[in-house]
Structures are given as C-alpha cells and as structure tokens.
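The records we work with from here on pair a chain with its fold. These numbers are not coordinates but entries in a learned vocabulary of local backbone shapes. To see the layout at work, look at the sequence and tokens printed below:
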Amino acid sequence: MNSKKNTESKLLSQAISQIKNMIKEEESEDIKLAINRGFKLYLIKITVAENAPLASIGAFKIIQKLNEHGDVIVTIPSGSEVLKSSFKGEMMMLVAYRGTENIRKILEDEANIKEMFYTEVHPQELGVSCQEEGKIRGEEGQLGEIEYLIKKVETVLQKKKFETVTSTDILSRLKAKEIRVKAKDLDKLFILVGELVLIRNKLFMVGKIQDSPMLRDALTALDQTTNKLYSKILEIRLIPVKQIFDLSLRFVRDFSRKLGKQVDMVVDDDSNEVTLDRSIVEELTEPLIGIIKNALDHGIESPSERRAVGKPSVGTLKLSAKRRKEFVAITVEDDGRGIDVELVKKIAVKKGLIPQSTVEKLSSQEALQLIFLPGFSTKKLTLSTNEECIGLNTIKQRIEDLGGYLKIESEKGKGTKVTLSVPVTKAIVSVITVLLVGVKDEVYAIPSSMVQSIIKLKEKHVKHVEGKKITIYGEKIVPIYSLSKLLKFPSNHEGYVVILQKGVNLCGLTVSSILGFEDVAVRSEKILPGEVWILGTTILSNEKVALIIDPWTLIKQNNLS
C-alpha cells in the first residue's frame, strides 16, 4: 500500500514539475489574478482512447469547455499540438476554477476519456508567490479584475523610473486581457435588443402618422444604432468555422491512413472569414465529421483504383464555407467515384421505400435525395469506438433540427458535393427581416432569406398538370401551394404568389395579401411540440403577435413535397 502511495506521489511530483516548467511571466500573472479572484488551481491529467478517430477532437473540445467555466492556464501538449498526428492521447492541464463540480461534469461527459485524474495544487508548488498581492477585498469580498489589473500595471510602471507614466500605458496593458462573458448574459442582451426593436417599430408607426422630418431623422439614427448593437452582440457569440475545419484535418489524416488511402484535405481561403454561433458549431461537428467520413470511406477510391481510371493516386477532399444571408453553407466535396443514381433508384424500390412508378418520374437530383431516407442503407457511419453510430438519415435530421437543410450533388466517376446549410445563430432572440403575408384575417411572417420574388397572381400564370398547380418562373417549372390549404383553413381568395427558394429548389406559395417587409425580433422557443414549421413568434409594430413560419416544412408535413 505504501509502495503504491509512493508511486502516485512521485508521478504527481513529476506532473507538477512539468507544469512548473511551462509557467512563464504571463502564466504567473494569470495564476496571481485567479487566486485574487477566489479561484483555486487544479492539475488535470487525462488519457484519451488513442485509436478513436475523434480522439484529438474530443481532447480539443475538453479544453474549450473547461475555458467556458474557468481559466485553462497551461496545457501539455498545447491546444494546437493536440490536433497534430504526434498527439498520443495523454494531456495535462493547469486550470483555475472555484470548485471541482464543473470539472468533474465536463470530464465525465466526454466518452473518449479512458482515465482521468485531478487534484488541487497550490501556487507555491508551482513557484508562484501570491503574498505580495495580499487578500485585498472589494465589493462582494473579492478584488475586481479591472482594479487588480490597474494595480498590477501601476506596480510595473513604477519600476520604469525614467519613463513617463500615462493613461495609454495602463490601457495598453488592460487591452491585453479578455473579459469573460457568460452565454446566459449574452442571451439576456439579445432579449433586450429584441425589446428595443419592438419599441423602434412602434415609433416608426408613430413617425408615419406624424410625418415630422426631425422625428424621421431620429428614427433613422435609432434604426442604425439598433442594427449595429444587434450585430455587435451577435459577433461576440460567433466563432470562426475554421475551428471545426482544423479539427477535421487530424481526422482526415488518421482515418484515410486507416483505410489505406491517400487524401489531401484542402480548405478554401475564403472560409477563414466565415463565423457561426458557438452552439451551432458544437452541434454541427458530428454531422460534418459523418459526411467527411462517408466521403473518405465510400467516395474516394483506393490509390490502385484511382490509377486504373486515370486519376492521381492521391484523392482530394475540399472543405469550404460561405455566408448566404442568415445562413452559412458548408460544403464537403470529393473527387471520388461519385454516386450511381440508377443504383440508388433500384435499392430504394427493392427496399420498398418508394414505388417504381414514382421513382421513374424523379430527376437525377431528386433521386440522389433517396440516400437520406430511413432504411436506405443498413451500413452506419461509426464516429468513434465509444460513440453511437450515425447514419445519413440522422445527419440530415440533425441539420434540419438546427433549422438548416442539406443538399447533395454527384456525378458518377467524378465525385460528390454535399452542402450543409445552417443558421448563423441559435440565439433565444434574433433580429431578422420577414415578409408579412395575410391569410383570411391572420398575419404570418416568412423569413426574407427564403423569398425570391412576389408576383401578382393571374389565371394565365397558373397551369394544371396531373391535378397539381404549377407556374413558369424564369425557365423553371415551379409547383404552387396554397398557404390557406396548408394551414387547413377554408378556401379563400389568394391574389399573390410568393416564390420561395431553398437551396436549388423553388416553390410558389399563394396568399391573400402582401403586407410588406419588417425587421422583427424573433423568439425561437418551441410553442407547439411537433409543429416544427413554426420557427418562432414575434410582436409586430401594430402590437399583434405573428408566427414566423417555414413553408417548406409545412409542405413536407402535408406530404406534398
């Protein structure tokens, strides 16, 4: 027993020594700041299953999650090293936390962790003395971060006997520190901005009645300031999509090696500037890795197969991201074997997923969507040795649960491109532009990002094919649906058709009246369980409540798509 304790004590001493060697002046200052804020220091050591394809991603996510509730001061290896092929599954961290509850929960929630150990350490063990700061107390018994930083800056500047101390010197040091903001506090700010938008809209109504140039100018300024405020708060929630691409790089390298394939992953340079809500990125990771794995496993051929058809032995997987209004489109494109559309049709019919008479009418693009039907493929995509399997249907469902959609394009022998389109943010309250439409005495709002055009409905625009209404828009045949019928309302005169677009798909939606566009604050909570066609609610400038609807989901629920 004593021998075991001695061994554990020796290993702990070695770990502390390794962490101590990583502590420089900046880390020392971080430790002092943490102690004066009432935090304690903890040494964490974890071992991640090295053979798990998502080992490095899981380890990197642990660092991110620990940073959300405390401060990660030192990691061995560093966060960037975790993503490299040299990562062997072992990681040590020095973190500052108020207690162990959050640490334990974060570590226990990560399925890939084989072993974990954490213990409190004292600054003195790391060669850091906190006595000079003392236990200075401020409001609520703690020294505020800003006051502490100013004190530290002043101490440093006093040593510069021959230099002039200015406010610029102090501010430059203050700017080097980040202020941590809780996600819940940001959500509260979003709610306040939503209320501000409602007040602004009411004032616009007053402005139309009063027709005062001075009031009109003030409202214009208020409008601009409100939009800037919303954009800035949203910006704080956003993180670069590049982060998820960086995580994917290690996975592509390891998994392609496991398959005996040679694959180059290329990231489009324009993607570096694209950002997404942190919560969206977290929920997008598994579906994206699932699509990438499918491309590596089923899309890109082995080196010998590629050479046999005149392709380079090294396959290419290209990732890109583009901002499209309120959505971000993430594309995974490979130069592999592509999808045999005719084979897809045969499998779908054979498994009873679709009648032969229906499959014969499908275009190649429509037939490709069959691979996402439940039961189309019995082969699942295993994301790691410890996680559940995730199929293509599940991937599609998860993207739709985020309020997004999935599009696939493929050419046999040349490759496949899958595009995941997801909303930029998943905030409790978001500000968007909507088109207000009337159906009988009700008003509904449609996100303007879906609206392609508005047409005054005339009989000559409408054709009937096999009992269904269509219209010609540009050079495309577009199906027409009645919003009143979709909502199960009695028949009603509908004088306008709204052309909607989702990816490459178009449809027409007939409505009674067009009430115009309006910027609104949308609350995204679920109102009616199962009614996923309701995106949220909003209060209009006339103080009426309106539902924000997704006509595409409504059409799908009515089995008309």
Q: What stands out?
A: The first helix runs from residue 2 to 22.
